[in-house]
Amino acid sequence: MGGRGGKGRAPRQPDHGPAEPLLPPEATARPEPPTEEPAEQPRPEQGEPSPTEQDDTGERADAGGLESRLLDAYTELASKPQDWIRLVRLREALGNPDHAELDQLLLSMTRTGLVHLAPDSNRKTLTDADHTAAIRIGSEHKHLIAIEPDYWDR
Length: 154
Description:
This protein is α+β, with helices and mostly antiparallel strands and 154 residues long. It has a domain at 62-153: Orthogonal Bundle (Arc Repressor Mutant, subunit A). Helix content is 27%, strand content 10%. The chain is built from five helices and five strands. The strands form two sheets. The chain has a three-stranded antiparallel beta sheet with strand order 1-5-2. The protein has a two-stranded antiparallel sheet with strand order 3-4. A hairpin with a 2-residue loop joins strand 3 (135-137) and strand 4 (140-142). The longest helix has 13 residues, at 65-77. Residues 1-68 are annotated as: Disordered.
């Protein structure tokens, strides 16, 4: 039939004329709020490590202690770079650290784009330990981790 305006054609959008020019950045910039001086934190007594220098066992740890331990555990468990490792195995290799603390670290590491978390597509093989070790992102539980070799070069 081939008539005009038949099925499958999108309706023509009206022309609203030329777009308005964008405002210069200084016209849309918001003033920064005044900064306040941070309150002075009480210092630990001489010879006593600060809370950030201690881990849950009371031993001294550097600021990236859990991250470096995680990277070491991953390299021991992985058979090759970018290998998928079950989070349950990684948590066990780390001595089952605080679940929330490790989840926060994993989330921050994924924001670099060099650490990847993924669900296990074969749900039937997951154990109770796998479910417990999983990290929930959005509506999905992630059971596997892979780390790019470039992560160590940062």
